[in-house]
Amino acid sequence: MSPHLTRSQERILKLLDASDRALSAQDLYLELRQRKQGMGLATVYRALDGLKLAGSIQVRTLASGESLYSSSHEDRHHLTCLHCGNSIELDQCPVHQLETQLRQQHQFKIYYHTLEFFGICTDCQAAGIQVPQG
Ligand SMILES: [Zn+2]
Ligand SMILES: [Zn+2]
Q1: From the CA of 128, how far away is ligand 1's center (Å)?
Q2: Residue 77: nearest ligand to its CA?
Q3: Which among 8, 69, 92, 134 is most buried, taking Cβ atoms within 10 Å?
Q4: How far is CA 37 from each of CA 7, 33, 61, 64, 70, rounded to the nearest angstrom?
């Protein structure tokens, strides 16, 4: 682990590593408070910003505009239902090959990528939610 991390960043990173799902800044704020490691929400955001720039975490933005953070060694993609908000995790990365290719082509140091599919899940379709044709 990088020695340049602040204490807040270390705590947040540890929490994200231990979590089996991506967490919002608000989730992190509440979880840290529960562990008696409370810090202000602004500090949480600042720490997340630093971790993001260092490539230590990755950010996924939901349809609602909320950002979810996770440790960056995860390469996960989802099908997200716009109606109920449920996410189905894909069991493999559809663009893994592409990332390698882009890295070589552009000599770009890629930390991570996001890829997400939005639509209506089978439950919502069964419940009669209108789905556009095609
Ligand atoms: Zn749904
Ligand atoms: Zn991927």
Answers
A1: 11
A2: 2
A3: 69
A4: 10, 5, 26, 28, 19
124 is in an annotated binding site: yes
The more confidently predicted of residues 46 and 73 is 46
User: Is 1-73 a domain of CATH 3.40.50.2300?
Assistant: no
Provide mean pLDDT across the span 33-58. Answer: 94
The answer to the question of whether 93 is labelled as a binding residue is no
CA–CA dist 3, 39 (Å, integer):
21
Domain boundaries along the sequence of the chain: 1-73, 75-134
Q: What pLDDT does residue 62 have? A: 81
84 annotated as a binding-site residue = yes
75-134 belongs to which CATH class?
A: alpha beta
Does the pLDDT at position 108 exceed 90? yes
CA of 56 to the centre of ligand 1 (A): 32
Structure tokens at 103: 């890295």
User: At 2, is the pLDDT very low, low, confident or very high (cuts 50, 70, 90)?
Assistant: low
Q: What pairs with residue 57 in β-bridges?
A: 71
The pTM is what?
0.71
Token output for 16: 């994200």
